[in-house]
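Office hours follow-up: a student asked to see two folded examples consecutively, so here they are.
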Amino acid sequence: QVQLVESGGGLVQAGDSLRLSCAASGGTFSRTNMGWFRQAPGKAREFVGGISWSFGWTSYADSVKGRFTISRDNAKSTVYLQMNNLKLDDTAVYYCAASQGGDYYNAPHYNYWGQGTQVTVSS
């Protein structure tokens, strides 16, 4: 069983940067694909991006490509989401997720979730 705990959310202004962290435990992190999702009020959960356990390959949603970067530190069992040039539309609860046995770029393959951290972007 994988446990995920996100941190780093908060209130920022448009154009600012923010880095989210997700600490994992209970599994073999170094062989687990990791990802980030988000859910804005009244909207469906959206796949932000994922990172593979091998080679650190990444995949991003078009809405964040070029602004967001996912990275991982296997020694710390932690995955990060660096968010730059934040926009009002980036306001959402951000969830860390793990995919054991699935593809890092395939949203339905994620089967473990954190509790989420709120990111609010103001003008």
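And the second, which I mentioned at the end of office hours:
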Amino acid sequence: QVQLVESGGGSVQAGGSLRLSCAASGYTYSSIYMGWFRQAPGREREWVARIASDGTTSYADSVKGRFTVSKDNAKNTLYLQMNSLKPEDTAMYYCAAEPSWITLRSGYPTYWGQGTQVTVSS
């Protein structure tokens, strides 16, 4: 069973930075694709960023240029560096993993972490 454990959330003022981490364990797939999603109160969950096995990254337009996704394969850990945070970035952030790149891109990955809260004040 794949387990994803996020950490690094917190409260910051607008313009500040946070780095989220997601440690993955328990999977036996030869490769697994990972990404970040977020959900604000009263809003639908939205995709934030993902990283392919070759290191190619993709970002939602709302975070492009401010957020950076990376992965340490030796540690099986996914990161999300968030800079120039805005109040509209306030949300619960979820790490997700999926053996299928296509399924991850569809926005419906199989495995989810418990989430970590990010709050940005103005």
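Two things to take away from it. Residues 101-106 form the longest helix (6 residues). The helical segments are 101-106.
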